[in-house]
Design a protein that fits this description.
The chain is mainly alpha-helical and 261 residues long. Helix content is 73%, strand content 3%. The chain has one domain. It contains 8 helices and 2 strands; from the N terminus they run αααββααααα.
């Protein structure tokens, strides 16, 4: 006969696990995001919390007042938000690279609404973001993200998150450096070709002033930019690999910045 008890203390532990996972799903663009219905996000968080309950190590949290329990909940919210934020920030590298591309080929005036970031992005930025999401699915990177979330309960126990501002600031500064480098690596071929095109158009404008280089240049830059995008589309796999490596490092650094030791 199965005899299983679920006490009030067990309910507290389950709710704290649910808070961390729900905070992660709320921020993470692949598992949550604004394009996902709230019922789906709540259901996914609840199912994942039920699967993890009893499998993660924990100790009973100690508190005396409601304020003490509120502080524990805020710690779990902060842990989930920072882990999901690492994925969100790395996903924005593709939008950054697409914005630079559109500025070079003349499509920056056209913008689209991105459901992941809840903001206006350019056409190429949205395209690169969708490609990065497909690579996330094809490469199985989403399994690593879920495994990293589960491992945080071992590295950062419940009520064990301690925010070290110096470690967190160092992690963000290192990420911003890689953010710019990877973004420019993605758009570097188009940036170089369009720069050469602008120099050529400038020389032609001096040689033959009667030509309307403004009308001609826009069309040439768009055609050349789309052609280079078509040629370099095979490079997006390697660019996605760079982003995923950076995503792993940022998640590890954020977890390290919340460890007590």
């Amino acid at each position: 006969m199965l005899n299983y008890s679920f006490s009030y203390g067990d309910l507290e532990i389950f709710l704290l696990i649910l808070v961390r996972i729900a905070s992660f799903v709320f921020v993470c663009p692949f598992f949550g995001g604004n394009q996902t219905p709230n019922l789906v996000k709540i259901g996914f968080s609840l199912i994942l919390s039920i699967m993890l309950y009893g499998a993660v190590p924990f100790s009973a949290p100690h508190y005396n007042t409601i304020i003490g329990f509120t502080v524990i909940v805020l710690k779990e919210v902060m842990a989930g938000l920072l882990i999901g934020l690492a994925v969100q920030l790395c996903n924005m590298i593709a939008s950054f690279a697409g914005t630079i591309v559109d500025m070079q080929i003349g499509l920056s005036m056209v913008s689209m609404f991105d459901n992941n970031t809840n903001s206006q992005v350019t056409i190429t930025g949205n395209l690169y973001s969708q490609v990065l999401t497909m690579m996330l699915i094809a490469s199985g990177m989403y399994r690593y993200i879920l495994k990293a979330l589960v491992d945080t309960f071992r590295l950062i126990p419940i009520n064990g998150a301690v925010i070290h501002s110096d470690r967190l600031m160092e992690s963000i500064l290192l990420f911003l450096e890689d953010y710019v480098v990877i973004g420019f690596r993605i758009c570097l071929p188009i940036f170089i070709i369009t720069f050469i095109t602008n120099v050529t158009l400038g020389i032609l404008a001096k040689v033959s002033p009667q030509m309307n280089m403004f009308a001609v240049g826009i069309q040439i830059k768009i055609i050349i930019g789309l052609l280079i995008m078509f040629i370099t589309v095979t490079m997006l796999g390697d660019a996605s690999n760079f982003v995923f490596i950076n995503m792993k490092e940022l998640m590890e650094n954020f977890v390290y910045s919340m460890q007590s030791s």
